Amino acid sequence: MNYLAGMNSHDLLKKYFGYDSFRPGQENVIDHVLAKKDCLVLMPTGGGKSLCFQIPALIKDGTAIVISPLIALMKDQVDALCLNGVPAAYLNSSQSSAEQQVVLQRLESGELKLLYLAPERLSAQNNSLLHLFKDLKISLFAIDESHCISHWGHDFRPDYLTLGKLKELFPGVPLIALTATADNQTRADILHQLGINNAKTFVSSFNRTNLRYIVEPKDDYYNKLTDFLNQRKNESGIIYCLSRQNTEDLAEKLRQEGFQAEAYHAGLENKLRAKRQEQFKLNDAGIMVATIAFGMGIDKSNVRFVVHTHLPKNIESYYQETGRAGRDGLASDVVLYYSSGDVGKLRKFIDVEGNSKQTKIMTKKLQQMSDYCESKVCRRSFLLGYFDETLNEPCNNCDVCLNTSETPTFDGTIIAQKLLSAVIRLKEKYGTGYLIDFLKGSESKKIKEEHRRLPTFGKGTEHSRDEWKEWIRHLINLGYLQQSQGEYTLLQLTSKSRSVLYDGEKIQLPIIASKKEAREKRASKDSGISVNYDKELFDILRACRLELASSLQLPPYIIFPDSTLAELSTFYPQNTEELAGISGFGQVKLEKYGAVFLKVLVDYCKPKGIQSKMSEKKSKSSISPEKKREKTNATKLETLALFQHGKSIESIAEERKLAVSTVASHLTHFVLTGELNVLKFISKEKLKIVQETIQEHGTESAGLIKVKLGEDFSYLEINAAINYYLKNRVKAD
Ligand code: ADP
Ligand code: ZN
Question: Is 30 close to ligand 1, i.e. is its CB under 6 Å away?
Answer without folding.
Answer: no
